[in-house]
Amino acid sequence: MLGLGAWASARAADLPVAMDGKCPVCLVKMNKVVDGKAEFVSAYDGKNYRFPSAEQKKAFDADPAKFVPALGGDCTVCLVEMGQRVPGAAEYALVHDGRLFLFPAQKQLDMFKKNPAKYADADLALGGDCPVCLVNMNKVVQGEPGYAAIHDGLRYLFPGAEQKRAFERNPAAFTPALGGNCTVCKVEMNKDVPGKAGYHLVHEGRLYLFPAQEQLDMFKKYPQKYADADLALGGNCAVCKVNMNKDVPGKAEYSVDYQGKRYLFPDAKLRDTFLADPAKYAQG
Prior knowledge:
Blueprint: H1 24-30, E1 37-44, E2 47-51, H2 54-62, H3 64-67, H4 76-82, E3 89-96, E4 99-103, H5 106-114, H6 116-119, H7 131-137, E5 144-151, E6 154-158, H8 161-169, H9 183-189, E7 196-203, E8 206-210, H10 213-221, H11 223-226, H12 238-244, E9 251-258, E10 261-265, H13 268-276, H14 278-281
């Protein structure tokens, strides 16, 4: 499974290699850093994971969410402390409660060990509440760890298999704007403030979360001001900007969610170019 949404349409051969080619199954099961091989590879959530043999690949394919590192391999400590996505390394890995976490250095690993409760759920979307239940039923329903899906490095939980399947079929219909942060707060204060499922709104088919009723009411009053706060480069093509230094408008049908921002592209080819190396083209 390549991943969900736009990632599912990308060619596996074009996707970036995760964890510098190190095997996630070996880290989780044996706490060992083992190089994977190009002939044993599985694509998931927009990245290629490598394994030393068919045995590890089979284990991964049976339950990818069990082995992929939290936050897509980025450091949860860095996200909590600095609000930044910083890639971790397999050499600084830790398995906590059965989940794999990567850190860029020993300092962040030690910080996690000292206070795991502060950092372990940095990748948990909507605080564990079910996005499908919010959109389809307008209800706040707590998800279960046994029904998890990974999308754009974030972990979504669902109360059952039905909601999980609905999300996997069309994540764009249920993924909250700005990665679940408040678009009003972003526009008014330029701050990433997490929203809450208790203050949610579905606007033109997209889910928005807010920290309190005040921000929800502001959005309702001026939706045009806040609805596109997560739109990167004003909707222009990131690949065109980097490769040609041109502002070329993208189209909604060729969109990608990446690290809380929404990228638009004029065609599938340019979208897939982005998917092959998002770090090169993503807006900083």
